[in-house]
Design a protein that fits this description.
Radius of gyration: 11 Å
Strand order of the largest sheet: 1-2-3-4-5
Strand content: over 45%
Number of domains: 1
Helix content: 25-40%
Number of strands: 5
Order of helices and strands: HEEEEE
Distance between the termini: 14 Å
Structural class: alpha+beta
């Protein structure tokens, strides 16, 4: 599970870096996380944290710095 969250963190970092360079995200903008061209998770950005549905679970991520995200699954 930690490896998957690490992959999601890296993918999120890359996708947010690319999107951040293009434009600022508006609150509640929907997001897709791609891995090898396939959507592996989708969710929203409320400006404070990102919530993604992945394999039936909600994964929350917050920005640690410009390129790193802390992610967790709540029980």
């Amino acid at each position: 599970m930690k490896k998957i969250l690490t992959v999601i963190t890296i993918v999120l970092g890359l996708s947010f870096s690319i999107a951040g360079n293009a434009k600022k995200l508006s609150p509640s903008e929907s997001r897709n996380v791609l891995l090898n061209g396939q959507t592996i998770a989708s969710g929203y950005d409320d400006g404070l944290r990102v919530a993604l549905r992945w394999k039936g679970q909600i994964v929350y991520c917050v920005v640690e710095d410009e390129e790193e995200y802390k992610c967790w699954v709540e029980d």
